[in-house]
C-alpha cells in the first residue's frame, strides 16, 4: 500500500478491523459509566451531583427520579448499540438502523456538551466534557461501522450510507 499522506482515508485503511472494535467497547464502557451516577442519584446518594448535596435535596423530585431512570435506560441502550455495531452483520436489527442511532447519539451528546461548554465556559469541568467525549466516541463507532465497500475506497453505491 502506498501512503499518500496523513489523512482520514489513509489512517482508516491502516486500521486493523480487530482494533477498530476497541472503540465500540470503550463507547460501551463510557455509556455504563455515564449511567452510574444516575443510578446512585435515583437511589438518593448525592455524590457527584451538580451543585452538591444541597442541590440534590432540592432537585430530586419525582420528575427528576423518572428523568434519572430514563437516562439509565438510554445509557443501557447506548452500551448495547456500541456492542451491536462491533458484531458482524446479520442480526435482527438492520445495521443501517444501528449506524443511524449511533450518529444520532453522536449529534445529541456533542450538541449537549458543546452547548454546555459555551454556556458554562469552564465552570463545569466534569459533565460538559463528558458529553463531548461521548459524542466523539459514538461518532467514531458510527464512522467505523460503515460497510466495507465504502471503507476500502471503492465507489459507494447511490444510497446514502450514514
Structural features, described:
This protein is mainly α. The chain has one domain (19-151). Helices cover 69% and strands 0% of the residues. The protein has 8 helices and no strands. The protein is globular. The chain starts with 7 loop residues before the first helix and ends in an 11-residue tail after the last helix. The model is unreliable at 1-5, 8-13 and 154-158 (pLDDT under 50).
> What is the H-and-E element order?
HHHHHHHH
Helix/strand-derived category reads mainly alpha
Number of domains in the coordinates? Answer: 1
Shape summary = globular
What is the first-to-last residue Cα distance?
27 Å
Radius of gyration, whole Å: 19 Å
Proportion of strand residues: under 5%
Give a quick account of the main beta sheet: strands, pairing sense, barrel closure.
none
Number of strands: 0
Helix content: 55-70%
| Low-confidence segments | 1-5, 8-13, 154-158
Put simply, the count of helices is 8
State mean pLDDT (0 to 100 scale): 82
Keywords:
single chain; 162 residues; mainly alpha; 8 helices; 0% strand; globular; disordered N terminus
Task: Describe the secondary structure blueprint for this structure.
Blueprint: H1 8-14, H2 17-20, H3 22-42, H4 52-59, H5 62-84, H6 95-120, H7 127-144, H8 148-151
Quick overview:
This protein is mainly α and 162 residues long.
